[in-house]
Amino acid sequence: MRFLLKSAFWLTAAFLVIRPGMDLSAMAETAKTQAISAGQAAIVGQIARTECDTLECAGGKALLAAAVTSVLPAAAPMHQDLPAAEAAPVPRPRPAWRLG
Fold first, then answer.
1. What is the pLDDT of residue 100?
2. Distance, first Cα to last Cα, the chain
């Protein structure tokens, strides 16, 4: 009985987390975008808080702030570079031995 109760609980929990019609890749993409923008804002805020007396320091701050806020395109995953035919080796054919 306890097994059935635990199974029903975990199946219900999984259904609530991964319900039908839910686009997990889109949710992950928005979470990634939000995390990156929050990190960039924190870094730029920290750079802006430092006090500068020289022109060299102010230029360095401006350069760092511009470098942090620029978005670079993501590279393609490494597994897409391989052709489908070479993804797995093909074993040699079995020999046609005759016993007898």
1. 60
2. 60
